[in-house]
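User: My advisor, Dr. K., asked me to get a structural model of this assembly before our group meeting. I'm new to this, so sorry if the format is off. These are the inputs:
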Amino acid sequence: MIPFTYSRPSVAAEAVEAVTADPGASFLAGGTNLVDHLKLGIASPTALVDVRDVVGDQVEELPRGGVRIGAGVTNSELAAHPLIRARYPLLSSAVLAGASGQLRNMATTGGNLLQRTRCPYFQDVTTPCNKRAPGSGCSALEGYGRDNAVLGASEQCVATHPSDMAVALLALEAVVRVLGPSGEREVPLEAFHRLPGADPERDTVLEHGELITAVDLPAPPKGARSAYRKVRDRSSYAFALVSVAVIVRVQSEQIADARIAFGGVAHAPWRAHRAEEALRDRLVTEASFRVAAETEFVEARTGRENAFKVPLAVNTCAAVLRSLTGATR
Amino acid sequence: MGPAGSCAHDRLTGVLTGKPSGNETRSRSGRKPALDTTITLTVDGERRELTVDNRTTLLDALRDGLGVYSPKKGCDHGQCGACTVLLSGRRILSCLALAVAHDGAEVTTAAGLGEGEELHPVAQAFLNHDGFQCGYCTPGQICSAVGMLAEVDQGWPSHVTEDLGAPVEFDEAEIRERMSGNLCRCGAYPGIVDAIREASR
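Assistant: The format is fine. Below is the predicted structure of the whole assembly, which you can bring to the meeting.
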């Protein structure tokens, strides 16, 4: 670990300025991912700018039924917050499905969105990895592939995004509020995380020095039911093999609206627009659910070790739709 | 021990001596930015000042800097829970916290939970129910259990809580889920669950 300076500004613009002006600087919030990366040699900043005094740590009501989640709100506080539990139980469920009690007490909302893949090769500096060392190659293509992406991957990177929270936020159509050197901007979560393409070293569209200050949620869809389901190798404290967030509204035995997002299948949390389209106005039957979920994975590309993810995702999605709509098999 | 551990050991020299380190001197002269920082921690009720290399984790500051050996270094990567301490009453992993980012913090370790000679009820329950064998993970288990029981008291739900809007029904499934961040290689889990169930009454 190389030495670094530490500062803790009290004004957001100062934090942004400090990081913008220094290519070696990095923001620090809860530290649960970054401190590990410092130890592993994945990140080597020469300056850490602690943002816990400059981003909000409250959940506030917005006009028209939405909420604003300060980027500094911890995962624990978010999941337990009365407003979130009442209006967005999907989000509470997703947050509670991730990490451990101790980690959720440290990790923040902004940091969760910026956490990096747990691909074993990304985390092992002795192996080639295009995300960590651009141009060095992808060890996961021919190596251990159980975690690999099945949708939207590239020849350069097959890593998956590890967040549970972000999958629920994607289905809830969250908007990320960002402060940069030239002011504020809003980025819909769907446009926030990138697919790997030819430059997998960039996980998100953020530029160096841009700071997440808050995440806004619009009012939840009226009359809809929602659920988050995560499938993993052990029943707690493990990353998702596949996860799914579903928000669905049924009218006269038909799907009026559905929003579906998957975790564990791609470089970014994956919004299943094709499946949503395929469900519209369909009768609530097992067959509709299965066909819709399969539609999303038509272009899936799998290897020897991760082919199980496609049927797992389809089955999980269908099961959640079944339980939310009361359909029978 | 990982690279962080050995680094921290080397770089904590000068800690507790009260003498400013070389880096700090450079900082005061304005030539180079500070790579060391003097911080204050209140540990188990005692206010302590120390100078840390900014890279030092809270765990290394406690153990190597202050000689507080109750929190243990297991994995040093946030995967085992052996380093769990309470920060203003909340359980956290001290191996993933930078000491410099917790200047002024109030830290409680398992050793600081009791009243004088009297064990904390959770620690006593671990004894009563054989909630450990080798004992290495135990201080982290106990801090985690104390923090977790406070979370339950506040009505915080968990992954296995059926109804997010209703009070928590505190059963074995809740204990196991909420304690999943603390590993025990001896496999004393049945005793740990029994101990926590007793302490929760």
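One thing worth pointing out at the meeting: Residues 1-29 of chain B have pLDDT under 50 and may be disordered.

User: Perfect, thanks a lot.
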